[in-house]
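Internal tracking record. Fields below are filled automatically when a chain is submitted to the structure queue. Please do not edit lines marked as system-generated. If the sequence contains nonstandard residues, flag them in the REMARKS field before resubmitting.
Queue: standard
Priority: normal
Entity type: single polypeptide chain
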Amino acid sequence: MIEKDYDLLLQIFEKYYDSYEEMLDRVKDVENDTVIWSDSYLEFFPYQYALNQLKKPKIYKTEPESNEGIIVNKLKDGELYYSYDNENKGWGSVFVIKEDGMKLYLRFLNNDNEEIVLEQVYCVVFKEIVIEKVLFYLKDVDLDGDEELNEETFLVDTYSYNSNETVDTIIRNGFYPESKNIIPTTTFRFEYVNEDIFIYTKQLKLNQMDVEKLRWKIKKSKIK
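SYSTEM-GENERATED OUTPUT FOLLOWS
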């Protein structure tokens, strides 16, 4: 199954690799959108930052005076469709599109040839109204054309749910920096206590006991 998911993301990557101008044209005439300024990219899917042990973005109420480190996020009907670095609109541009039961997050960067090309892809696959799995792909291409020096990161997060459709576990598989270097399978287990969310992690490593650790605690949001 992981090979099938990898092939899917590789097709997506190749399809959109040099599509920056096309993606930019898609978003230039969107009307009545909402702008949110932040110090890092917004979450693309629930628990994205917790699963990867990243700090949540800081959201600004008004446009910051300085452009340094500021991400401009554009939403339509509450959904993100375009983000970019306010200092360099090309570098780090993100486009969100929907395609055949999937939602794609395409992040473009300048390469060493000063071309704006696709580098990262997130693909959220839905089963009816819930997330079935989240796929991630990153490719660092050797500019001298030596394919043996290309590096890839590929992750598959597969979701399972409780009876009330809350997330129960997420199983992560994948490889880095090449397909033969498989990463140990990681299990994220969710507990819900008094509306707080605890995420525990356990990684299967060769010749080691599985030890479950608390990875993240998400406190109940307080209404101010």
